[in-house]
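Usage

Read records sequentially. Each one opens with the input sequence:
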Amino acid sequence: MFEKFKFLSVIFFITFVTQSIAQETESDFEKMIDITINTSTGLIEIDESQVHDLHVFIWGKIKFNIYGLYQNTYTGQRITEKKFNISSTIINTTLTPILIPPTRPDPDDRNVNNNKILLGTMVLDLLRYDVTPGVKNATLSLSELDNTIVNQRDISFNVYDPEQLGDLEITHAETVITNIDRNQHTVQIKAHIRNTGRDDINEKSKVRFYIKIENKLKLIRTKYVGPIRENNSKSCIIFVDYDTYSKIIGEKLYIIVDEDNYIRERNDFNNYLNYEVPQIQIHPDTIKTFPNPFKDQVNFTFFLDQDASPLVVLTLYNRFGMNVATKGYVLPPNNTYQTITYFNDTLPKGIYVYTLAVGNIIYQGIIVRK
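and closes with the structure output:
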């Protein structure tokens, strides 16, 4: 008996964790759509961004928030009470309609914002119906009480079964800065993706990189990877500039691979990865000299770390290794690139080796006086 209870507890825990992860990212379990009925024009207004690429799990739900948009006064207009209906191709009857009063209810204790009043919520709960995966349609209708249609809108949404998702998994992610990236002031974020199935995936798959800021997911980049043969792996790389990288250090990066390029598969462990962006010294340990060759003065540009000593020491050696010049510069450390200028119009023409001590870094190179 105890073993059976233990087994059921494990099943419940796994289900709860899976649901919790998906609920954290929301989207595919519960969709929210705001619908406004303009009582003056009789039009159904929808935020198009909410119905673009609309998709939901077979056990998910679509929640419609119905608002009434009221003007303070109506002059010379005959306004009558109307009813709002929602019907769908997955059910035989419409949801219980909401009555749209001709004027703002008074007294009214509901939320009023910019003359909008929340009149009610209509929920299309797919769990209540025998829904098959595929594209479905819903019809939104505003009509008079005698069923004369005033306005009508159609929206489509895709229903899918998460158990029929694909075989791609994200094994790990990493942040890389190569010498070329340093010169271009870019950072690589690399996701490693493997095909765990027994079949080749012959088309490219979409990979989305999100950052979570204030409990909201913000899309950073969308890339493609593949095709990938069975049991093989590939890397998917995005490039971000230094400014973007500095803002996402320590934040949670969500990486999702989507092999049919349509749905966002956020419920499976294998195609979903949380990755904390690490901090890497992004400045290059290089120095630029210009002009070189020079006539009377030469400039040195380098990165000065905010924790480095403010004293920068430049030393010049001739071709015999003799120290011909040493000069110190005191600079305010502010974690940015600095430029110092060395001027000497009496320095003999020739080739010189320089060292520039910047904190714990010593740069070395050659300059030429012409």
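Summary fields computed downstream for this record:
- The radius of gyration is 32 Å.
- The CA atoms of residues 215 and 366 lie 52 Å apart.
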